[in-house]
Amino acid sequence: MDDSSEFVPIGSMVPLTGPxxxxxxxxxxxxxxxxxxxxxxxxxxxxxxxxxxxxxxxxTAKEVVSAARLLIEKHKVHAIVNGYNIGAQNSExxxxxxxxxxxxxxxxxxxxxxxxxxxxxxxxGCFMADPADYWYxxxxxxxxxxxxxxxxxxxxxxxxxxxxxxxxxxxxxxxxMAKAAAxxxxxxxxxxxxxxxxxxxWRDVIEEVRATDPAVFANTHFYAGxxxxxxxxxxxxxxxxxxxxxxxxxxxxxxxxxxxxxVGVIVSSIIGLLRDEMGKRFETRYKARFGDGSTPTIGCQxxxxxxxxxxxxxxxxxxxxxGDFEQNRKVxxxxxxxxxxxxxxxxxxxxxxxxxxPYPVLTPDPSLGMPHIFYQIHDFRAPLAMIAPEPYNTxxxxxxxxxxxxxxxxxxxxxxxxxxxTEF
Amino acid sequence: xxxAPAQAAEGxxxxxxxxxxxxxxxxxxxxxxxxxxLVYINEGFHRSCALPVSLGMRYEDYVAAVAHSxxxxxxxxxxxxxxxxxxxxxxxxxxxxxxATGNTMHVAQRPTRADGMAVTxxxxxxxxxxxxxLREAKEAAEATDEAKSRxxxxxxxxxxxxxxxxxxxxxxxxxxxxxxQRREILHAMGVSASIMEDLxxxxxxxxxxxxxRIQPRITSFQLSELxxxxxxxxxxxxxxxxxxxxxxxxxxxxxxxxxxxxxxxxNFVANAIRxxxxxGVLVGCRKEGRGLRIEVVDTGRGISEEDCTxxxxxxxxxxxxxxxxxxxxxLGLNIxxxxxxxxxxxxxxxxxxxxxxxxxxxxxxxxxxxxxxGPAADVSEAVGxxxxxTPVLLIEDDEILRESMAQLLRRWGIDVHxxxxxxxxxxxxxxxxxxxxxxxxxxxxxTRTGLEAIEAVRDLVDDPEMPAMVVTADxxxxxxxxxxxxGIPVLVKPVSPPRLRVLxxxxxxxxxxxxxxxxx
Lengths: 424, 520
Hints:
Chain A has helices at residues 21-40, 61-73, 93-99, 111-118, 136-149, 168-181, 203-210, 224-236, 252-258, 277-290, 296-315, 325-337, and strands at 8-14, 49-55, 79-81, 102-105, 126-128, 159-164, 187-194, 216-219, 242-245, 266-269, 340-342, 345-347, 358-359, 370-371, 373-376, 385-388. Chain A starts with 7 loop residues before the first strand and ends in a 36-residue tail after the last strand. Chain A contains twelve helices and 16 strands. Chain B has helices at 4-24, 43-48, 59-68, 78-87, 125-175, 179-210, 223-241, 258-274, 305-308, 321-324, 332-343, 381-384, 399-411, 422-430, 450-461, 477-485, 497-509, 511-518, and strands at 28-32, 38-41, 72-73, 93-99, 104-111, 117-123, 219-222, 244-247, 253-256, 280-288, 291-298, 347-352, 356-364, 391-395, 415-419, 438-442, 468-472, 490-492. The longest helix of chain B has 51 residues, at 125-175. Chains A and B meet through helix 4, helix 5 and helix 6 of A and strand 10, helix 12 and helix 17 of B.
């Protein structure tokens, strides 16, 4: 074991430039805040933690792999902890597995499951600290069914239209949504249709969807700007249906561009800051440190990942440098076994996937899964309303302004079902 | 001879040892003198009884304190009890008392030779509980035994019938010369044997239920999934019989044991089809309280009012049924009843002869957020990945490479169609065995290049834009540039899975992006 006066080098691969630079800056903030808090309390078993950041820019495989190599070879980091880097397709796992260090990320990718399960011994140190993209699909279907079954919303039909962006993330979500629909009484009436993204031109596909007269219109593309244009084009001549937009619409940019058109939109995130006491205290600390313009709901991800890592490494008796497989296996063991409640819910790794288990779509126990949060925009100037799931929600669903509102109860027409069996 | 003070000291220490010994006993001890004063309390008494008792206390005061303490559940009026108790001083008695804590205390009162009295307090809660449990178990065993005897008598009767037929049939078969007749007899023997088999299967199920081997596993799930399974199971039977089987599918989450509910409903549906000759069977639900009543409605022969009360009994068959048409064992509905009892789901039947019957089971509604998402819980790229189900034609002449590449692609959920050469690839496509969305071809095939193979497949399906890529071990710049000139992206072996994945994604879903990155 190294001298206790030496710092523990921790790497972080963050997109500080390029299309995800805004998120990247928050991921960097999260790591900085976690380091400051941990070091103020004595660091990792007495050793201060020192972060090293590398810009992953457009997050291509080449950029992310060279970032991982640089951190391992030059800075000898004991772990790489960050938010997401999409686009690398897990190729960064290879240098990390070769070095035998710990890697904690929030890539939200189903392929993490397969990579880890293909060789659990090799990828022992790779953890995905949020649930896979896949879970967005069944999560949304359950949410819609909950709105329907609890009487908060009376859909005019059981038809869902699904439009997908062209990234793997959007495609996986669209497919899983379509797959889960039938079990809950929904029928996919359009799509999933893949639209070449990025794009700000949605009118053609909106017209195609209009012809199918859906009760729900879901768009799984996730760029905030593109989605804002979608929503503006939708409300030019709205359909009488709910609109669900993928993750990007949680960003401030979305409401800034869509303005009034954004009110009523439903959006979800499989990871996000909670609004309980713990979440609020974090928000206050984060904004005090990085300013009112900062976004704690993004920064909390890398923040939690580093805190969790530090606790795991302390339980294991310390961190391990590149090549110290034995020590890092102990850290991985601690991370896998620990149920860690943080500011955005619970980090509990699935024993086989080494990815976080989502609540409520997979586990019914909120203490054992990370909440898949559903928001609705009630006021485009205000923070999003958190409308599900219990027990974390703080607001309730409202009918979007473009919809005709709760239809009055109409008497069912005489049916070919004289015994009066009702279809729910 | 020892001196007196030393003797006294020794006696005192022995006495102390006695007191200490009495103190550590679990049993509480009180000793009263002949003038009814309390002269001894051991520690055990304080530990087991929270009663206001002190040395020197008079017996009358003690009884009054007990009667009004609320610690000791006295039978009847406390005043009367105290009066009787005071009169009992110095008599021998044994009684059990309930304490406010729920414990049962055995109080034994014994007169001393000097007209005083010793009273012991022993906690017998565990003993009493064991006694009660034993008694209940015995009663239950007796009831089960009686039920089992009745059950076995009936089972014996029902098993003997097919057995008797079988014996006659075997005898007839031995005598029979005519081949046609023999076949018929053998068929009848088969039927008898299958009746016995069904009966034994049902007996086994009941045995398991009775032995408590079936433990319900309550989960929340969508009822629609269960209806779908039952529909698949029975559609064929209903069609064969020419009756209409219809499901009005609810979109509700229920909370029960999925497999046991399926057995209940399967039984209802099987019966409904069995006893319906014209019309149909309808399965649906209605909301009732905090649950759903699932009903299986048929237009069959119906059941008389008298029979309705007994259809769930074991081996009960509707009167005249056994003679006219021997159908069913008379155990199905009894199994349903046992399963429903286990799940605590009320079942019911309403019927009118010649009109039809409605069998129903009530199940509680579940929380939709908690509903199982079925096999998707075992999610992987093979079921949920972006390439899941995509048909891909893989042309590779090296058997080992072809197999390992196919394995990788299958892990991503791809529907792989491997071919060792161009001719086989053409055959697969022309015979309609695959309509590929993507072609992956090795460059150096034995007689042709991968480019030619791709060209041939594209010509065959008349799609010059069909996505395709070439993989090659030949990193010769001339070869690579030839492939690129043909407008086909290329990967050099050994192929890195992430690179392959990105290229496949771009070819299938983001072709414009690929054109930009490939450049001139």
